[in-house]
Amino acid sequence: MGLLSTAVRDVRTGRFERTLAGLTAAGAAVTAGEIFFSHDGASFGNTMMWWPVAVVPTAIPAGIAAVFSPRAARTVLPLASAAIVANGLQGTYLHWRGIAQRPGGITRYNVESGPPPFAPLLASLVGGMGLLAAVLRREGRH
């Protein structure tokens, strides 16, 4: 069997834990960088802006550990991922609140020029990937 057909079979049978854990680590690295630069561009005007900069990168070592350790995939990765999901939901609230506090409230202009309303949900998706990885079966055990 080729590598691609093996990967497809693993996904179909729910054996995708290691791969999804690795993708979670990679996604967290990219997302953490994007969050840092976006919040830095806003001069970290609210101290709450530091939370995702601290929380999202926790999935990087947790995801890498989960690739190599089934135990880490069941313990550390879900904890880091749940924290990221919670922080993303909190960030969504804070971004919408920031938009609403702008002059004129929630208008198309304020949604387009204010804090990105859905960006924190993207971080939550990275956390969701980690939570999903934690409940899947590991590749290579057939």
Topology:
Layout: H1 3-12, H2 17-41, H3 50-55, H4 59-68, H5 70-74, H6 76-101, H7 108-113, H8 119-135
Helix pairs in contact: 2-4, 2-8, 4-6, 6-8
- Multimeric status of the protein: single chain
Structural class: mainly alpha
- Give the H and E element order: HHHHHHHH
Number of strands: 0
**What count of helical segments does DSSP give?**
8
Distance between the termini: 14 Å
What does this structure look like?
- By secondary structure, this protein is mainly alpha-helical.
- It has one domain.
- Helix content is 74%, strand content 0%.
- The protein contains 8 helices and no strands.
- The protein has helices at residues 3-12, 17-41, 50-55, 59-68, 70-74, 76-101, 108-113, 119-135.
Short note summarizing the structure:
The protein has 142 residues and is mostly helical. Helix content is 74%, strand content 0%.
Keywords:
single chain; 8 helices; 142 residues
